[in-house]
Specification:
- The protein has a five-stranded antiparallel sheet with strand order 2-1-5-4-3. It has a five-stranded antiparallel sheet with strand order 7-6-10-9-8, with helices on one face.
- The protein is α+β, with helices and mostly antiparallel strands.
- The chain is globular.
C-alpha cells in the first residue's frame, strides 16, 4: 500500500512539473504565468485562496502579485501584509525566512510555536478571510535565486498534509524558473504613456499612503498582477526602511517591459516612526547590467565583460582592464551570446536596447543621461 501511495505521489509531482513547464512556455508575463501556475496546482492540490508573486532576487521585496479568490475584508490588506513581511513581528512566516530554508516550503503551524490562533498572521489574514490553514513557498530558479513567493490557504477542517507540502516543494523550482523566464520575455515596442514630473509616493506613520504623484500611480498601475495591491511595492519598501533603517533599493518590471528602480528614504527628521518617501524611476544603463546578470544567469566575469561592452570598449581594451587575454574575453562573449540568444556584439547591444530602451526612444533625456518620459508619437508632437 505504501508503495502504491508513493507511486501515486510521484505521478502527481511529474504531472505538476510538466504542466508548470507548459504554462511557462505558453504565457507572456509574470501575472499570466502566476494565474496559470495557480490553476495547475489547484487541480492536483486543492486550495481555497491563493497568491503567486514576483520578488527582486537581490532584496526579496515583493514587486507584483496574482491572486485567486483573495478579498480584502479589513480594507488594510496591503499595510498588514507589508508589516508582517517586512516589519519586526516575531510571528510572521516571512518569505525572507523561508528563503533561508533549503526546502523553502512551510505551513503556518510548522512555522509558529504555540497556538496558531494567537499569531498575528492568523488573526489579521487567515481569520478575516475565513481560512484556517496556509502553506507558504519561495520559488527559486535553476540559478538557486529566489524569483517569487506564494501562499495557499484552506478553510476549517482541511489542513495541508505532509504529502501536500512535499509535492509543493518538489515543484517550487519549476515555478521559480517559470517566473524568471517570464521576466525576460521580449518587451513590446510600444510602452504605456506616463506623465511628466516626479514619481513619488508618501507613506505615513500608519503605513498608509498619504499621497502619490500621477506619474508614480501610472508606474504602479503598470506593474501587472492584481490591481488591488498596486501600492504594495511602495508600502513594503517604506515598512522595510522604517524598521531596518537601511537604504531600500529594489527593481521591478512593468507589464509592458520597462524596468524601474524603487527607492525609500526618510521624508522628515522625526526618527524611525516618521513619514517615508518612495521614488520610482526608469532603470539607468548601468543598472541594466545587474538586471541582465540575474535574469540570464551570467557569471561575475561575464557581467564585468558585459559592462565593458556597453561602454563600447574593444576586446583588447577589455582584456587590459580585466588582466586577461583578448581570447579569454572572446570566450566570455560567446557564453554571453549563448545565454541571451544572440550571435554578435551588435545583436547583443541591439537586444538590450530593444528590451530596455526602445519603448522610450524619442523621449527627453535628463541631465544624468536617462530618459525622462515616454516617446512622443508623430501624431502627438
Amino acid at each position: 500500500m505504501a508503495e502504491k501511495r508513493g507511486m501515486a505521489a510521484s505521478r502527481t509531482v511529474g504531472a505538476l512539473r510538466s504542466s508548470i513547464r507548459d504554462a511557462a512556455l505558453a504565457t507572456d508575463s509574470p501575472s499570466d504565468f502566476g494565474q496559470a501556475a495557480l490553476s495547475v496546482i489547484r487541480r492536483r492540490i486543492p486550495f481555497d485562496r491563493g497568491m503567486v508573486g514576483t520578488v527582486d532576487p537581490g532584496t526579496l521585496m515583493i514587486t507584483s502579485a496574482t491572486m485567486v479568490d483573495v478579498t480584502d475584508p479589513t480594507g488594510r490588506a496591503v499595510e498588514i501584509v507589508a508589516e508582517l513581511e517586512y516589519g519586526t513581528s516575531p510571528y510572521a512566516n516571512t518569505y525572507s525566512r523561508l528563503a533561508r530554508k533549503p526546502e523553502g516550503v512551510q505551513t503556518i503551524r510548522d512555522a509558529i510555536d504555540g497556538d496558531v490562533r494567537d499569531a498575528l498572521p492568523y488573526q489579521q489574514i487567515l481569520e478575516p478571510l475565513g481560512m484556517d490553514d496556509e502553506v507558504r513557498l519561495v520559488f527559486r530558479g535553476r540559478d538557486n535565486r529566489v524569483w517569487g513567493g506564494g501562499t495557499l490557504m484552506r478553510g476549517p477542517g482541511d489542513r495541508f498534509c505532509d504529502a501536500d507540502v512535499k509535492a509543493l516543494a518538489e515543484i517550487a523550482r519549476e515555478i521559480g524558473e517559470g517566473l524568471r523566464l517570464s521576466l525576460i520575455r521580449q518587451a513590446p515596442q510600444v510602452a504605456a504613456e506616463v506623465s511628466d514630473g516626479p514619481a513619488v509616493v508618501i507613506v505615513g506613520e500608519d503605513d498608509e499612503v498619504e499621497s502619490a504623484t500621477p506619474r508614480a500611480l501610472e508606474f504602479l498601475d503598470r506593474m501587472g498582477g492584481d490591481s488591488r495591491i498596486r501600492m504594495m511595492p511602495a508600502v513594503a519598501a517604506a515598512v522595510r526602511f522604517r524598521n531596518s533603517g537601511d537604504a531600500v533599493v529594489t527593481r521591478m518590471r512593468t507589464a509592458d517591459g520597462e524596468w524601474l528602480v524603487l527607492r525609500a528614504g526618510r521624508l522628515d527628521g522625526r526618527g524611525a516612526a516618521g513619514r517615508v518617501v518612495v521614488t520610482l524611476e526608469p532603470a539607468h544603463p548601468a543598472q541594466i547590467v545587474a538586471l541582465v546578470t540575474d535574469l540570464y544567469r551570467l557569471t561575475t566575469r561575464e557581467a564585468e565583460v558585459l559592462g565593458h561592452v556597453l561602454a563600447c570598449e574593444t576586446r583588447a581594451e577589455i582584456g587590459q582592464r580585466m588582466f586577461i587575454s583578448p581570447y579569454t574575453v572572446q570566450d566570455h562573449l560567446k557564453s554571453i551570446y549563448a545565454k541571451l540568444g544572440v550571435n554578435s556584439r551588435q545583436e547583443l547591444v541591439a537586444h538590450l536596447f530593444f528590451a530596455h530602451h526602445l519603448p522610450h526612444f524619442g523621449a527627453p533625456v535628463g541631465p544624468d543621461g536617462s530618459f525622462t518620459g515616454t516617446a512622443r508619437s508623430e501624431q502627438n508632437p
